[in-house]
Amino acid sequence: MIDDKNTSSELLEGQLSITFDDLNETQQKNGIMSAKDYLETKAKAEEAPENPEKPETPDSKTKKRPKLPQNPIKLEEPAPEPPPKPLSDMEVMEHTASVWQYKEIADDGTEMHSEFHEKSTDAGFAKIYGARVRGKKHKHEGTNCDDYFETAHTDDCAIVVVCDGAGSKPLSRIGSRVASETAAAYLKESLAQLFKDKPEIKSGLAADLKSAEFMAACGRIAPLVQQSAREAFAAQQKTLDELCKGEHKDVYEKALGRNPVLSDLYTTFLAAAIVPLEINGKRECFMACVQIGDGCICAVDSKESSEHCLKLMGEADSGAFSGETDFLSEKNSRPEAIGAKTRISRGSSDTIMLMSDGVADDYFPSMPMMKRLYLDLCLNGVLPMTGKLGDGEDPAPIRFKSVSLSQKSVALQYAKQLLADKTDDAINALWDKREMLRCHSLEAFRMNIGDTPEQRLRVWLDNYNERGSFDDRTLVVVSL
Fold it and tell me: What is the DSSP string of 9-32?
């Protein structure tokens, strides 16, 4: 046992020395840093600065990245491209004119309506002519026209009824036909009898507007026009009974997949009784009108200025929801309801027009757009024009491909081509210089779209283009 301290210390140092030497020798052989070198390297590292710069080498010079600036320059993003220019109405109509297809009406055994209908009557005191055409949508789908009109006259008055069957109802074309024919026949018979039994009625209509005689005469005629709506509705009910129980019951049940109901016959209803008058040597006319649903009834004095030339004789009824209209019904034809749908008027108007919404919507709002409608009819030869004829002056008539079997183009003139802008003032200004517009008419360009006013009206209805217009069109004109 060795217990001397010095001896122990020397032995420990020797053991440590041997241990380091052995370790150093082994590390050198294996390429490992010795403990002594490690301690020296660590001491130098502690004395060195925290971020010493590395010495440059040929490789580091080539690989060294440039320092970025403190506030780098921001590259401007390219400006967004401007949105495409909207297509003009003309460009849209040129495109859609080539999209519509023409299909003949499919025969399912139910009542069919003709492709179009035109009619003209010379009542002596007035010329009455009208036309209806199948709309582009019905042509595209191969379905029936839902519009109908009927005219009549007595020795003392002209009668017009226009009905537009609801497009969503499968038999509305039957409802519009029955209502038109029934109301016109009723008014012709009842008014002829009234003027025969009460010849003083006409002088009463010519009396002072505030007089008892005038009011009494109005009180005789207006109720007959109102009653014509009730007669029309009663005829619809009778027709429904025939469809459900008659010899064609099976045909309609098969076409619908069920029995017909009254709503299948829904239609609007516009009726007018027009009485010509002579008051103090001047021609005037009295009108009593009823309007249930959309469309338009208006009276035009072609001799008056834009401020006084137009009078609206009805107001379009709306349904329970936006875009809907009202229809002939028991409720709407009751005395307490139909009074608000009745208008009477007396004045110097010389042109009365009744139309379905297929025309009225293309000339909305009616005030002042009915003036543009009147000018369009003049420019295309439906109504007479005054003023110097001369040679045709630009803008020339416009051609669009017709939606028909022939697909030939038809040239028509548009008053909107002559407008300075789309404001009401521009329309009024054009009206007030109408005597100078004949040089823009089809006649001035040696063009003609029919031999008679009613033919020209039918061709015009079938071929004029308005953006978003594809409904059936009906227009009846009474020219006094």
Answer: HHHHHHHHHHHHHHHHHHHHHHT-
